[in-house]
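Note to self: keep these together.
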Amino acid sequence: MGTQNPSAPPRAQARIAGDKHPDRRPGGAARRTGGLQHDNTRHTSRFTVIGNHLAQHRHLSLLAIGLGTHLQSLPQGAPADIKTLAARFPEGATRIAAALRELECHGYLRRERVRTPSGRIVSRTVSCNQPATAARSHPGPSPRPADLPERAAAPAPEADVPPQPCPREPCEERAPRAAREPRASRKPLPAVPRPECHVPGLFRAAADLLADLRRHDVRLLLSESDNAHLTPGVAAWLERDVTPAAVRRALTADLPPEGLRRPAAFLAHRLAAQLPPPAPYREPTATPPPALPRVPLQNCDGCDRAFRAPEPGRCRACLRGT
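Structure:
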């Protein structure tokens, strides 16, 4: 009898037809023990249906996918601005703004400006759960016209087929929203009077007076640029022989009780509207007036009191005999 080879593989056994047990398929045990497993429970309330084209998007960042899911779960009319989202999540406003731009580029978010019945223009955020369908239903101009022409003309995607995303590079190279759509600049401050002579000490005193106004009223806290704009006006007042206390009293008296939206504009208006006239002109004299003679002090010979007289003698009381 020959010796058996213990390292020889055993004879393969044929699989029973129709047996689809995962443990008996090739690699079935490995698939059962490794990889992701699901322990699902059917939702009956408080749930949101999210498409796999968003949850498994290959071009969106994880933050953008999570933020898109959160936006689709919010009720109608809920606030969805950057400030509100930054207060809700630990990510900062910069990362949230970048994620919103990603969603907007790929069609999951749309920002519109609408006019309310009162005439006020507000921004409206629209979350789209089917980007291609939303692009066809809104053929007008969108906030990203360069990114949506091909997607708007494409047919609606199937449930398991993700929509064709726009290239990644334009989203990253696009300038920030603040740079693309600059907000309307604020109305410039009213002009203030200017002094006739540029005296550095006068300007320093004017700047110190303006910086000290917040100690008298907290609403008069001025920025550095506002202080520089108002300094020549205060210097013009000081040049006209107005004391710093009088200037401070004129600027802080009778302030409106409901508040000041732009304290710098309010102060600039007062500096220009209440500017006092120049100090009266005094013609200098050619020769100074003669000095009055000084009468020396004398001691009275009668009562020994001091009195002024050109020569020693008695005072007026002693001369009258009182």
